[in-house]
Amino acid sequence: FFSPQVLLLACAEDLECVPGFQQKVFYIEKPFKFTEDQLVLNLKFDDCKGNNKLNFEVSNPDFRVELDGSLVALKNVSEAGRALFVHARSEHAEDMAEIFILEANEKPVALKEILKLEGNLGIPRQKRAILATPILIPENQRPPFPRLVGKVIRSEGTEGVKFRLSGKGVDQDPRGIFRINEMNGEVSVTRTLDREAIANYELEVEVVDMNGKTIDGPVRLDISVIDQNDNRPMFKEGPYVGHVMEGSATGTTVMRMTAFDADDASTDNALLRYNILKQTPTKPSPNMFYIDPEKGDIVTVVSPALLDRETMESPKYELVIEAKDMGGMDVGLTGTATATILIDDKNDHPPEFTKKEFQATVKEGVTGVIVNLTVGDRDDPATGAWRAVYSIINGNPGQSFEIHTNPQTNEGMLSVVKPLDYEISAFHTLLIKVENEDPLIPDIAYGPSSTATVQITVEDVNEGPVFHPNPMAVTKQENIPVGSVVLTVNATDPDTLQHQTIRYSVYKDPAGWLEINPTNGTVGTTAVLDRESPFVQDNVYTAFFLAIDSGNPPATGTGTLHITLEDVNDNVPSLYPTLAKVCDDAKDLRVVVLGASDKDLHPNTDPFKFELSKQSGPEKLWRINRLNNTHAQVILLQNLKKANYNIPISVTDSGKPPLTNTTELRLQVCTCKKSKMDCSATDALHISLTLILLSLLSLFCKSF
Prior knowledge:
By secondary structure, the chain is mainly β. Keywords: Calcium, Cell adhesion, Cell membrane, Cleavage on pair of basic residues, Cytoplasm, Glycoprotein, GPI-anchor, Lipoprotein, Membrane, Metal-binding, Repeat, Signal.
């Protein structure tokens, strides 16, 4: 054992008797074990009044203190924890002593921390007038209160002076916990203490005269609350969920459980040990897992073969974990939590088809799903180790089939994506392979059950005739004679084995220009083809024809005919505008710019030729000038009186033969004042009437 470190309250010659343990802190080296009836050390307690009704209590029930202060072991003890606490109580006093159990070569530093004294442990550096030794008070003391817990001593006596105590717990919040007898320095506690609320109090004590003037001090008085085991371990970080892969090696760490104890971490009150109380379910073994009592690590303890997810009653295990303080001793307080352990799946089972051969029937010309291939897989349906991936490995050279996975059922949906032709092949045989999204584990491989054959029968249906080519195209001049042959269409029946006949009919003929011979398919005209018709788009007229076979029921095919119409000069040019206005006093006699247009195509349109009809009368009143291929300008040769004039103008296109159109341009000569134009016809058709009179006069002269 170490030589006990004595907590000196004062030099013997200077101090009177102080109730309590004469040495409060001890350090002993941990032996291999404490043997039964072994004397550990001697404690000395004195209440200064004869120790009447003295009894001792030890924090560890494996030890006891005899009436003479001998601490002995009641049995062989290999683990006593880090510290023992001895509580002594007599009729007049009570106190607490601590025995720290150190590992070999461990330094006893705790005493200095408790006493907070400078210099050598437990030995004051110099003699003081006020001696305020640290006070240790157990938490959770029961009434009555106030309770004497210590005493402050003045070496120069207490006559004519008073003690004064201050600090947090006295005159600062929480107030009134401690008080001091002004006359003799006895310190009392007035209520139960809670170490988890406040573990240490730093007070100041001073000596004052009767007028309150400080004589000695202040000196610090440290009060430490001794921990009692009054807090259960608590699991605060839940929920606790761990995962372990099936087939994992024995000893694989799954998760760690950590509890918290609010008691003093340096004592056994917070020294936790873990244990598994219950495992659900209990199969295939009631002890699937083990928890490290000190660390809280949960590990597997069964063989990899038993950790097989597919053979387990459930892939989820629930463990009730207990954390017990006092190092797991029976007197320790406990807390529990549930750990959920999920056995994760690995891909150790390949998917297998439920049968080796599947049958499917599909009508020719139809697309879509034709059969669902079923597989079984013992792995976890929520993982890629279960989800199937299908592929066609043989029998699909034309890529007419595709297969996809149904995500809900894991079935393979085999579809026709290109219509099948009964006349080409009435049967198809596919070889299908199934794998998982995730790769198999190294010692597992896909076997024969991971492939299957699909036999597909194609049913013959009456298919409609097919036009060749489709669409059909032909070029014709517009205006060809009614009854002209446009072309002869050709349609064949894909059902070559049925030997059916084909009849033709008009399906859509927007302008009603065409007819078709129902037997030989010759298309002829029933009306003039007009390129300028609104039914013609971009010089192309489109019509549709039907080819109908003799099946029961008959099947129909549709053919499209595009007729490109070549232009013929069959439209006269038109003139615009046909109305113009001019002021009777205008200085600019350029009246209007005329334009010409033609519905025909080049070269049956521009350049256009513009001409004025012959002007009668003594003088010419206007002329027309060509501006470009499509426009000309009308110019007055003099100002005219207010009236309306009609000017005949002819325009000729460039077709062969050319076509001419004569149009009258109406010219209004108006009065213009202050930017306002008055065109009311007071002298209506002045020129036209003059021309009529002159024409009549000419006829009259010729008759004589």
